[in-house]
Design brief:
It is a single chain. 41% of the residues lie in helices and 13% in strands. The N terminus is likely disordered. It has one domain: SGNH hydrolase (Rossmann fold, 3-Layer(aba) Sandwich), CATH 3.40.50.1110. It is an alpha/beta fold. It is built from 17 helices and 14 strands. It has a five-stranded parallel sheet with strand order 7-6-8-11-12, sandwiched between helices. Strands 1-4-5 form a three-stranded mixed sheet. Helix 6 crosses helix 17.
């Protein structure tokens, strides 16, 4: 029997959380530094890779319970993708409502509207595609399907990167191909591409084990992009995450770990040896910078991380486009953002992901930019920013936010489908009153 999980116990990892709404979403979105896991215990000593990784280890009992699907109910192990989702009931919805999450034989979120009709649309992405924090019938896919009068498959998985979504696309388009792919990219998905083990960058969570996952390694200056498989490719190998020596040997020289160590040691005002390592990395990635103090070091590390992250997504998009051309498919890209990010852009008048947006524009790719649509709507809104955002967000989008997404996407979907969906075919037959 699936238990109801209270939102406060579960959402701190998977969403911004309702507290962000109550605080209007502090205008600054969380950075990698905010998410660092262990803090330096001695302000005079630099944190080493071994010390940092020691704080991330799981117990063998935790891994056993997760592999057997007896604990950590959010997800289940997947050798291909790191994790997939499990049927669940979580108390994480609007007004503390209990939401139900149900998954089908392809590990897709179940299709409800027009499920017995041919499907021409497959959606891929992370939790903003999965539609975490609303029940099965409240997702933007189901809202869109009801309007178009044809099904929309939902292959979104909470916490996934652009790269994981791309790998899922390659698999599912062989099994259940669609004419139109909706490829949803969330603000943090770019950085996730580079994560071999997400716990290096985010805190451990009592409801979710962060297993290792397929990822990419990049060098921007050398235009190098290398795809890497899941470091723990079998259930038995997940127990490596309990072994400090194995973890240090496997991740001790990882790019993301170096970035996180930089943040930790900058907070301790002791950059340590990794300071030089990361400055060398910055130079090889084409970032010319001089940092003479620990205070200035964390932003420099973030700049390096972000540049590598956006570059990785650009290379993945090129691969998505190549696949679509080869298989005669159309792709619609949807850019999703948390409330914090929207608030930051309203207050600062600029968006940190502009390099990626520019890449999409230069390549003339069809994009629905939900950030820009929210900014345009807020300019017409007669009220406070926190009240505007509260309409749509409860961490992730609430049901109204999913309606917003569905109708933001609708016109482009109708335009890209041939033949048009039934409501947009004059010859489909109507009864006049």
């Amino acid at each position: 029997m699936i238990k109801n999980i209270p939102r406060r116990e579960f959402l701190s990892k998977t969403a911004i959380g309702a507290a962000a709404l109550r605080g209007v979403m502090s205008p600054l979105a969380a950075t990698s530094a905010d998410q660092a896991t262990p803090a330096a215990t001695d302000p005079k000593a630099a944190v080493t890779a071994r010390e940092f990784l020691k704080g991330l280890l799981y117990t063998r009992e935790e891994v056993k319970q997760w592999i057997e699907e007896k604990a950590f109910p959010f997800a289940k192990y997947s050798s291909e993708f790191g994790w997939l989702l499990r049927d669940a009931r979580f108390q994480d919805g609007i007004d503390d409502a209990i939401n139900i999450y149900t998954y089908g034989p392809l590990d897709e979120r179940i299709t409800i509207h027009y499920k017995n009709q041919p499907c021409r649309i497959n959606a891929y992405g992370d939790s903003y595609t999965q539609c975490h924090q609303v029940s099965d019938g409240e997702t933007w896919e189901e809202v869109l399907a009801a309007h178009l009068q044809e099904p929309v498959r939902n292959f979104g998985v909470g916490g996934w990167s652009v790269y994981q979504a791309y790998l899922r696309l390659l698999k599912e388009e062989q099994r259940v191909p669609a004419d139109l792919i909706i490829f949803n990219i969330y603000q943090d998905d770019h950085s996730r591409n580079l994560d071999p083990w997400r716990n290096i960058r985010v805190r451990k969570h009592q409801r979710f084990i962060e297993p290792t996952l397929p990822h990419v390694e990049v060098n921007v200056e050398e235009d190098r992009f290398v795809e890497r498989p899941n470091p723990c490719p079998t259930p038995e190998s997940v127990y490596h995450l309990c072994d400090l020596d194995w973890v240090v040997n496997r991740f001790g020289d990882d790019f993301v770990l170096k970035i996180m160590l930089d943040h930790e040691n900058a907070k301790a005002r002791n950059p340590g040896q990794d300071y030089k390592d990361t400055m060398n990395l910055a130079t090889t990635h084409g970032i010319i910078t001089r940092v003479d103090t620990a205070k200035g070091f964390s932003p420099a590390a973030d700049a390096l991380h972000q540049r590598a992250a956006y570059y990785s997504s650009e290379q993945i998009i090129k691969r998505v486009e190549a696949f679509a051309r080869e298989h005669k498919k159309k792709v619609l890209y949807v850019l999703s953002y948390p409330a914090q990010y929207i608030a930051r852009c309203v207050k600062e008048g600029q968006r940190p992901d502009q390099p990626f947006v520019t890449f999409m524009q230069q390549n003339k790719l069809p994009v629905v930019d939900l950030l820009q649509l929210h900014l345009d709507e807020f300019r017409r809104y007669q009220g406070e920013l926190k009240d505007y955002l509260k309409q749509y967000f409860v961490g992730h989008y609430n049901p109204k936010g999913n309606v917003f997404t569905a109708f933001a996407i609708k016109d482009r979907v109708v335009q890209m489908l041939n033949p048009k969906p039934r409501p947009y075919r004059p010859e489909s037959g109507i009864m006049r009153m």
